Amino acid sequence: MYRILLVEDDEAIVKNLTDILNREGFIVDSASGQTLALKLLDEKAYDLCLLDISLKEGNGFATCRAIKDQGDTPVIFLTASGDEYSVVAGFDMGGDDYVQKPFRPRELISRMKNVLRRSGKQNNLIELDGLVVDIDKGIVRRKEEEITLSALEYRLLLLFLNHRGMILSRTMLLEEIWDIAGDFVNDNTLTVYIKRLRDKIEEDPQKPNIIKTVRGLGYKVGE
Q1: Maximum Cα–Cα distance for the chain, whole Å?
Q2: Is 32 in a helix, a strand, or coil?
């Protein structure tokens, strides 16, 4: 899991964005201003910083410069300002990307993953219980043997792996599958896909060790 530092003084944005990123499997700490942000950076290692330019205490440009002076943590600026000066100034201070408010969560998450990949912080091999997923190549292996998955099965597997330790309800899974498939996927179809996926990736599909059922709540992968 990636640890993200969110530097933002709007409490509503902090709450909503933290909830969204948590659902995507990110660990999020937040700071309302420059002083606390730099204190947290002294105490913990962060994979990425989401940084608002307009802060009540300090400002995003100065905070970015201080972050870059402390190490190589990538920075994505979040701001309502879309003027050329702010964009150029942000990059001059060492910013890695720039997202204008209001932003779409999916776009932000995609930008985050791109920055993590460019910075070398994204691990494109995911390993769990003998299963190895190569995200770059879209290949899934168990004990060196390649497993053939359909596009929807592969998306479902990545969804579980990207939310390790979290319980995913059937409603959440259906919403995500709908986004990717573009076709109607009902509750019964989801059951079929989960069974097929277990048949392919579990050593014993009758006693699944990877995709575990949490009775009455949904499914969970990992601790």
Answers
A1: 59
A2: coil
The neighbour count for residue 203, using CB atoms within 10 Å, is: 13
Percent of the chain with pLDDT over 70: 92
* Tokens coding 24: 């995507």
| Cβ pair 53, 61 in contact under 8 A | yes
- Give the integer Cα–Cα distance in Å for 35 and 57: 8
Query: Distance between CA 52 and CA 77 in Å, rounded?
Result: 6
What is the pTM (predicted TM-score) of this model? 0.58
> Taking a C-beta distance cutoff of 8 angstroms, is the pair 80, 101 a contact?
yes
Q: How far does CA 85 lie from the centroid of its chain?
A: 29
pLDDT digits (tens, 9 = 90+) for 43-81: 888 999 999 988 888 888 888 988 888 888 899 998 876
Specify the number of domains making up the chain: 2
Q: Look up residue 134 and give its two tokens.
A: 């190569």
Q: Which residue range(s) make up the domain with 29?
A: 3-118
Residue that terminates a domain, selected from 100, 118, 136: 118
